[in-house]
Amino acid sequence: MACAAAGIDGYVPMDAALGDMVAAIENVVRGELACSPQVAASLYQRIGSLSRAAIATPLTARELQVADLNPSGLN
Predict the structure, then answer these.
(1) Residue 30 located in a structural domain
(2) pLDDT per residue as tens digits for the range 50-71
């Protein structure tokens, strides 16, 4: 997860075949992200948990004030 947050474009496990490494490099050169389905699943799960945590965070008093003004047409 730290590598993804740092902005990596691909990940190949140490035990991957040389062909997998070459394919990952070619994908990254084309501007595509390269990782295994298992890594992608982990990333999606982490993003989902972060999203749920963000939604569960209560609004501040100021955010509630702004939300109350919005239906009145005030921003």
Answers:
(1) yes
(2) 877 777 778 788 888 888 886 6
Integer CA distances (angstroms), 66 to 55, 58, 63, 73, 75, in order: 17, 14, 5, 11, 7
Q: Would 4 be classed as within a structural domain?
A: no
Please check whether residue 43 lies inside any domain of the structure: yes
Alpha-carbon distances, residue 59 vs 5, 28, 40, 55, 62 (angstroms)? 25, 39, 31, 9, 8
Its pTM stands at: 0.54
Find the domain containing 67 and state its range.
9-72
